Target: M12 family metallopeptidase
Amino acid sequence: MAKPKKSTATKNVPNHYCSLPEVQGRDLSHIADRYRLRLIAKLDRMWVNGTQLTYYFFKQPAQWRGGSEQEQAVRDAFAIWKNIGIGLIFREVDSPEEATIRIGFDHAEGSWSYVGRDCIDYASSPSERTTNFGWDLTTEYGKDTALHELGHVLGFPHEHQNPRAGIVWDEEKVYESLGGYPNYWSREQTHWNIIRKIPASTVDGSEWDKDSIMHYQFEAGLILNPPEYQNAPLIPSPGLSQTDIQTIQTLYPPLAPSIPTLFEYESQRITIGPGEQVDFVIKPTLSRKYTIQTFGRMDTVMVLFELRDGFEEYIDGDDDSGFDFNSKIKAHLHRGREYIVRTRLYFSSSQGSGSIMLY
Model:
């Protein structure tokens, strides 16, 4: 999905749309605390800040190959997101085995992407794509398509499915429109990508942003409410909206220039709020198997990286959110090497009630 310039919007021509893979969300029904549930659901697919997202462009099979111009359009989109000033790092690699994000350009499949950490949870094989681009990315519509799909990679759902948008669809007209040219979607695909409302807990009270890069544009006649779109198309402005920028900066703020050291057998208190993150560098004194563990009544996701040639390589991670035990990683660490452990807090029974230890 992308958004053309307003000067072309009045043509009211049906557009190609992004179709998300259908995945089964995590079962959080056992969580009775609604505030805890909301925090976990909102952050469930987000990366820990500072994660290096390596990406690869498939060259084989031939129908997955994009060519230099299409690949450059994706690089440009990564740069736009990065230049907002976020803490995530994007790096192109030469093999799918090294890549977290694996990109194809199969025009027969349209454009789609897994959302956030679904990229590693549901497409773990190096032979699988996590993202596909199904049309030309060098047009104005295509440039926003690239931004949109990478928005999914960063963890964002479709904005038009925000339950606070107040959109009431003329559902049969939506099914009819998306079932024809150029998408040819089944009713199930249309329901998943348009009619379905995402859980209110995942949007954390955010208001509808009709100009979000994550919003489809819609031709006239598909929307019953808000009434201004009954007889006029809904055309978001091109590019990232101000809300897009503010949201990504909140979730992935710039990294601190230096981080403290987590020493062996010294407990470090965690004094952060929901959605915030604490990072430590580890410099092992011995080459042996270590345990890194959080303590306290907290829901956290903890990820361990090794610093190699200036880049952080993923080692292991653990997400304890929604359960009454703590994040724990056991890994063999080597003397003379450096590691970074990053821990994002979903929920704590009281701020500052936890700690982290290396032993």
